[in-house]
Amino acid sequence: MLQLHFREMGQGSPLVILHGLFGTLDNWQTLARRWAEAGHRVIVADLRNHGRSPHAPEHTYALMSEDVLGLFDQLQLGPETTLLGHSMGGKVAMRFALEHPQHLGKLIVVDIAPRFSDMEHQDSVITGLNAVPLATLENRQQADDALAQHIRQVDTRQFLLKNLYRRDDNSFAWRPNLAVLTAGMAHVGEEITAAQPFLKPALFIRGGLSDYINADDKLHGIPALFPNSQVETVVDAGHWVHAEKPDEVFGLVKAFIGS
């Protein structure tokens, strides 16, 4: 169990937010502040091997769920807490809810289903990140140029470059544990299963332009594990629903968790 880096703001019923693969808590900072201003105690956390949380040689949902349990214990979060996760963070949130339902009041999952996720689409990202010549890098533009050889989408490169930082000796480094994530990518796609379903309220938010939650997920996969769930679609949004349509996501979450 690792002690996760987190940021906390606001007062009221607790909302814990978990980012996706290659993300950090900063990805949710703007929305977190809005929910805090709307009357919630909001905790945004960096998952293991990401952001400013510790690096470790293993990266599995079982371990990430235990890390989150440690965070709940550290902050003395009670059963009125809502847990929200996006993509990989959504799978962590699902696993946590199924393993520790007594710690949660509600669950929110953003654009991911419990089924196995094919991670082949991440190959270019992994290749691009590993191709950046950190030892000789002089500026961020050189990093972007190296990434562009493998990743054409400008917004994806900008998202990834948020993970690039300068060490005290002025050299560049990645915040994610790239070696472990590269080796363990198969674990990130793992299916989430459980012997018993999570019976409390759950909200799944999907991007209308994304295929991470499909019709079969809505009819079968999600209700099998989360029978008290609803699926809401944000029109004209892709996988990064919260970045593309923050007002819609803010409203859906606020209406679901109430005051």
TrEMBL record:
Domain AB hydrolase-1: 14-246
GO MF, one annotated term: hydrolase activity
InterPro entries found in the cross-reference section: AB_hydrolase_1, AB_hydrolase_fold, Epox_hydrolase-like
Keyword Hydrolase: yes
Keywords linked to the UniProt accession: Hydrolase
Pfam families: Abhydrolase_1
Hydrolase keyword on record: yes
PANTHER family listed in its UniProt record: PROTEIN ABHD11 (PTHR46118:SF4)
Name of the protein in its database record: Alpha/beta fold hydrolase
Species this chain originates from: Hymenobacter perfusus
